[in-house]
Amino acid sequence: MHRLAAGEAERPHLRSEGVPRALIQGFLGSLLVLFGSFGVGWLANGSVINRWFWVIPLRTEPWGVAVTTVALTLGCWVMFHAWLLLGRALREPERSPWPAGSLRIVNIATAVWSLPHLVCVPIFSRDVYAYLNQGRLVLAGGDPYQEGVSQLDNWFHFGTDPMWAQSETPYGPMFLWIEAAVMWLTSNQVDAAVLLFRLACVAGVVLIMIYLPKLAEHFGTHAGRAQWLACANPLFIISFISSAHNDALMMGFALAGIYAAATADKHWSRGVVATVLVTVSIGMKIISMVLLPFVALLWAAARAEGESGWMRKFRYWCLTAGLTGAILLLVGWVNGYGLRWIMVLAGTGDTGKSFWSPVGIVDDTLSNTLHALGQDADWTLDALRLAGRLASVLIVVLLMFIGRDRHIMQRMTWAFAALVVLSPIIHPWYLLWLLPLFAAVGVRNDWQTKWVVFTVGFFICYGAQDQLSVWEFLDLDQEMLRLSLATSAASMLLIALLPSARWMWTQGWFAAPLHFKAPGLGRTYALHTYDRIRLETVEPGRRASSGAHSAEQLHTGELPVTAEQSKAPQ
């Protein structure tokens, strides 16, 4: 307790050691991303930016494309390093309690780093241009759940990926209203529409940044650390602001609803508000429907004294399902689409796979094996997709019925994770569906935090080279891909060697040492990976001292004070 009190006394501020450096470096990285986006970001043919005199050479000359490719990729890694610097300044490497006031610093850093992205040319994805044409289709009286945007005149002029030309929209009916409103307000002007869509997504970001700390505090985790993990990382800023993904709105309304349900013990009406908010989230993207039964459980648990009984659980399940159904029926009646959009969206995403998804890995292994044996392998992906869906549904149902009330949030998080992980397609921003939920229930400061950091790094590397807009006549696609990968590789190596970020891989892996025997030597060794990476020989008949900490201590950061720490000056 003495160490915790001391940590709270050292309230961080904008001039605290390491904070200014992190703020400035992250902002400079964002400026590099902004500059790079003008050369290799996604621009619609109808954008006036294409005709800006200083943008033309960046997009049409080989040197301009190369310079902006490096700037974009390098800027992402500068932001990544700034993110680690901020965590270091707020005691993340020490695995001690984050000081009071950390949340304010993280919020300021996230806002500062996000500013250049507000005017960034879309990067990492061009889904925002699909929103434009779908909004035009709604205004034209079409049905995006039955028609593709190719029905529109001049649809290609608005930058939509051709893969959407004949496809139904995968978005909920409430987001269609936002699409139509943006296109009506901007009179179909491409650049103004992109900016307005981005501001709508910023509203979702604000909701996430408001309710994630509240949820973290409610479930006993540090609000500032949760915000740092989920919102200050560059993948969050790029995917939800630069790319303008409507997933920000989906998660913003979802987190607000979850918090309202978890605190429904104060006012019964909060459960109603929670259901309405999650229904709005479903109206953005249907995937968040998996959260609804767990929101009902949170509502039931909040109203119960002790463990809620099965009659109460079924009553609240029926109440939330009935209220959601009534709202969606009303929305379907108003927009004329009815509820058929649910069946349409349930069948979307049936093409392709991500090479890093578990289903994709199994499919590659299985199909390659069958091909080597001379067998047909055209059926493997469809079969694995079906198996993944059935398995994810089974996991969700089991988590609905099995577990104590105090673990509802964890069960909901793993249910959502099952849907994502068992899908054949996992886009980089899907991580951002799960990360706020895991951050709210607690990501331990050991290998779990490493997993988050390295996953963010992987998706930055992939997104920077995969989503480059390069004119076909330049014939530079593969060269820029390799240039981006080389920039990422050099950046990752440099960051790993810098003293300011070396802690991320040299310490804090496993609290207990890993014991193993060397073949032929008959000796037992202990590999320590927590305080620092070191190898020691273990004498026969004894185990290495672990210095292990409990899961609760790793979770909260309230680690016991060692003899050396107690002697250190305070």
How would you portray this structure in words?
The chain has helices at 2-9, 19-40, 56-60, 62-89, 102-114, 127-139, 173-185, 190-218, 223-230, 234-242, 247-262, 269-284, 292-303, 310-335, 340-346, 358-372, 380-401, 408-421, 431-441, 447-466, 477-497, 503-506, 551-556, 563-567, and strands spanning 514-517, 524-528, 534-538. By secondary structure, the chain is an all-alpha fold. It has four domains: 12-123 and 444-508, no CATH class; 124-221 and 234-345, no CATH class; 352-424, no CATH class; 511-539, no CATH class. 46% of the residues are buried. The model is unreliable at 1-9 and 560-570 (pLDDT under 50). This is DUF2029 domain-containing protein. It is found in: Membrane. Its main location: membrane. Residues 545-570 are annotated as: Disordered.
Helix content, binned percent? 55-70%
Roughly what fraction of the amino acids lie in strands?
Answer: under 5%
What count of helical segments does DSSP give?
A: 24
User: What shape does the CA trace take?
Assistant: globular
Mean pLDDT: 87
Radius of gyration: 25 Å
Class from secondary-structure proportions? mainly alpha
Task: Give the termini distance in whole angstroms.
Answer: 13 Å
In total, how many beta strands?
3
What are the low-pLDDT stretches, counting only 5+ consecutive residues below 50?
A: 1-9, 560-570
Main sheet specs: 3 strands, antiparallel
Q: How many domains make up the coordinates?
A: 4
Subcellular location: Membrane
Main location: membrane
Pfam family, one: MptA_B_family
Membrane topology: Multi-pass membrane protein
